[in-house]
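Give me the fold.
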Amino acid sequence: MDIEITLLAPIVLFVYNRPEHTRKAIESLQQNDLAGDSDLFIYSDAAKNELAGPAVQQVREYLKTISGFKSVTVVERSRNWGLARSIIDGASTLSSQFGRVIVLEDDLVTSRHFLRFMNEALTLYADDDRVISIHGYVSPVKGPLPETFFLRGADCWGWATWQRGWNEFQPDSAQLLAELTRRKLTGTFDYDGAYPHTNMLKMQMTGRVDSWAIRWHASAFLKDKLTLYPGKSLVANIGNDSSGTHCGATDMFSGEISSDRLHVGDIAVQESQVGRAAMRDFYSAHKISLFRRIVRKLGTLYRKSVISLGFAG
């Protein structure tokens, strides 16, 4: 049974200096059947140095040509904010204004069913305080997953939330780490040692990375909140090619975008043990690769500057 969508969430897209990635992200969104009824807000960050200037300008020229949405609003930053600060500001502004928001970055290509899945789920769970967000991406795990399922915490590759959900965001990484440690939750937070979430939170606290995503995940996790995931991914990250600041070159997160429309609802609002085990096994199988990526990013830090890092990148 279809869910009657009571309110379409605005889409917010964060872009910087990757014109080809941005074009692919926009074109995939335009193929969604709800695109024409959706408001699109685009935050274009300013160049952080002269080298990035031409590409930033190229992106901004492309943004002027975009159509296919109910409205398109472009916010051009006059100075470089960085991804973390920009996302926190944009998500806060739009969730406050509209009550809900769908969040994307310039390297995320979506299924034509992405907007419907997100809006149906946002409608169905709007008043369920146990659910903090909706996510469009799922890792290419081995074995089948439920059509939809819940995991504790929050995620960062094509997601949506309500104002009540984003209000739970805690920007203070030291406070988050202290609470995880006090409650002896670091092992669970790290998928039983399969993924170094705690170490990334420590890196955030000491200024070695700048990640909104690890703080978003920890904020939700500590509140025992759930995020709804699709059993088949509705999002592909095309930025794992060393073109961005938060992901190196890898294909470990690559998988096909589902061509199927997913049914939302009729599942228990609790963490899926099948889903959690699948994610733990996936991270365990790639543990060495994950460790090497983090070490490589730290090397980039010491050669250049503080890096912007999503917790899955």
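The chain has a mean pLDDT of 90.
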